[in-house]
Amino acid sequence: MYGMKRTTIYLPEDLKSRLEAEADRRGVTEAEIVRRAVDRELSRPAPRGGFLMGGPADGITGGNLHEHMEGFGEL
Questions:
Q1: Cα–Cα distance between 8 and 65 in angstroms, integer?
Q2: Going by C-beta distance under 8 Å and a sequence separation of 6 or more, which residues neighbour residue 12?
Q3: b/e for 48-72, b at 16 or more Cβ within 10 A?
Q4: Whole-angstrom Cα distance, residue 64 to residue 37?
Q5: What was the pLDDT predicted at 50?
Q6: pLDDT tens-digit profile of 22-61?
């Protein structure tokens, strides 16, 4: 396997069983499925910043943080 490096991963038994079955169904190796999944995951754009807590549902951004912090720390 020229150009490849070996690595070891630990999978829960149910995930390993599903991986084995899927590799068999597709007629490919388990390693091929893992390589494709890792490549797909690493090809996705990284999440962008902007939300300080909880994401868009909470509506807290750098631009409106002062509204959410009003009264914070006052006794």
A1: 43
A2: none
A3: eeeeeeeeeeeebeeeeeeeeeeee
A4: 38
A5: 56
A6: 999 999 999 999 999 999 999 987 766 655 555 555 666 7
- Bridge partners, 51 (sequence order): 61
Distance from chain centroid for Cα 39: 12
> For the chain, which domains are there?
7-44 (1.10.1220), 49-75 (no CATH)
Asked whether the predicted pLDDT for residue 7 surpasses 60, the reply is yes
In the block, tokens 């494709």 appear at 36
- Check whether 19 has a pLDDT greater than 70: yes
Do residues 26 and 34 lie in contact, with contact meaning Cβ atoms separated by under 8 Å? no
For 47-65, give the secondary structure using H, E and C: CCCCECCCCHHHCCECCCH
Stated pTM of the model:
0.59
